[in-house]
Amino acid sequence: MADIATPVVAGEGDMTIEKPRRAARRYRPSGSAIVMALYLLFLMLPIYWLLNMSLKTNNEILGSFSLWPRDLTLANYAKILTDSSWYMGYVNSLIYVVMNTVISLAVALPAAYAFSRYSFMGDKHLFFWLLTNRMAPPAVFALPFFQLYSSIGLFDTHIAVALAHCLFNVPLAVWILEGFMRGVPKEIDETAYIDGYSFPAFFIKIFTPLIASGIGVAAFFCFMFSWVELLLSRTLTSVDAKPIAATMTRTVGAAGVDWGVLAAAGVLTILPGALVIYFVRNYIAKGFALGRV
Amino acid sequence: MNKTVNQKAWFLILPVLVLVAFSAVIPLMTVVNYSVQDTFGNNQFFWAGLDWFRDMLHSDRMWNALGRQLMFSGIILAIEIPLGIYVALNMPKSGFWSSFCLVLMSLPLLIPWNVVGTIWQIFGRVDIGLLGHTLAALGIEYNYTQNSLDAWVTVIVMDVWHWTSLVALLAFAGLRSIPDAYYQAAKIDQASRWAVFRYIELPKMAGVLMIAILLRFMDSFMIYTEPFVVTGGGPGNATTFLSIDLVKMALGQFDLGPAAAFSLMYFLVILVISWVFYTVMTTLDKREGN
């Protein structure tokens, strides 16, 4: 299967079979454009609505119904960014997510290399067994994790969440990296060994730069999947390492729901993904498919 | 690629094995341990054999949750796979608009799951949500917290919103790998649009579509956060899927024995179905390689 990383020049040979249609496209919107516009509208509307609400006061949210904020306010964001119990949620999430990404990549790199280069006893079974961890429902692991980390005194620490998320991120990283490493010809390894490189020197100086984009993509997906997960991170924390996702439930108070702040917190959790998505746009399918595209 | 046989490669795998053993095998053994024991409290356990498994197999609660789960996974697969293919066929092939679509489409995939729930919880509310408000203005009675059908529709539309792009992106990646020559040949044969899809595009997408089905099946089968935030499993038990029921049992009621037996059977079902998909997938891979 062709690597989607190298954009195949398919643009010239357009999907349209007949020539006249292409000429007509210039004058009226084509069917494809309408379909895409409708689909993107469907995707963006709920997100727009969240953004819209985050910029309104609670009075306006509950009092009147408007498609855009009449009385634009940044008070909801200000509240989150000045209250430490709010912004510490983001800090906690970032800490365990970064820890998880580093651990996952560190153990996955050598393993992915082994899977992509060597065959050994039980390799296929092992590869599938790794995938089964990605299939494991977090709900099954919530309680045992809670007991395991409580018994070794790691409950409510960042490292506990980081290790728990390794359950699905390590297999993910191994699979993605293996996909990228398969694309590097084996002759490069052999030449390097003949030139007298030791394995660690070869791996760090020659091999790592060759799969730099793969490492970036794997890191992005580890980051992402750890960032979006809630069930395990909520079960394993109470105060000190409480993630932002769990902090959001605070908006439900005695006086009802603080919709504006809830929406603002939601918008802020979308930002990390939105900021870097452009850089991985060509690999996004590969990442979600565990490197199998 | 032909690989060298090298048993020392095990040393490179070792870190992964240790880590996964710690974060997967030990907890799973705890579950197995609970599933065969009963307790009267005070941490005193005694052997219960396979009683819990027998109990769970005769429990309506589990069968109902499983039924709802299968229906949910079936419905979202039936919607997301065709819709995703359709969107992929309509995506711009290259240039600025292609990147533009890729970026916007990926956005829902990167939103934390509870925020996805929150977005739809707000969006569907009759008083403050665009969707709920519009439906109410059109005179359609819609209330996802009271009416089970509305709750189902909301949860399904939410999942379609959240994950169709994944199918579309995978299908798009498959489409891009088709060489131009195929289309030119079809053009010479004066093949219809349908024939091009049926005999060129669909077979070439088969591999990626299997991955899409596998991923969507797995993830929908263990869905928890999104419906939990929107409906909390209600109204009644209408949207209580397997994970929601399991968390209720294990962390809510602390029925460890039944919950553990439930967990193991749940995991087993996912494993068996995923293994079938995986086997089909690798067979397809091999056929394409030859």
TrEMBL record, chain B:
GO terms for cellular component: plasma membrane. The keyword Repeat does not apply. Pfam families: BPD_transp_1. Keywords: Membrane, Transmembrane, Transmembrane helix, Transport. The chain crosses the membrane at residues 12-36, 70-89, 95-116, 151-175, 196-218, 259-280. One of its GO terms (biological process) is transmembrane transport. Residues 66-277 form the ABC transmembrane type-1 domain. It is a multi-pass membrane protein. InterPro entries: MetI-like (IPR000515), MetI-like_sf (IPR035906), Sugar_ABC_transporter (IPR052730). It is found in: Cell membrane. The keyword Membrane applies. SUPFAM superfamilies: MetI-like. Its main location: membrane. Belongs to the binding-protein-dependent transport system permease family. This is ABC transporter permease. It comes from Pelagivirga sediminicola.
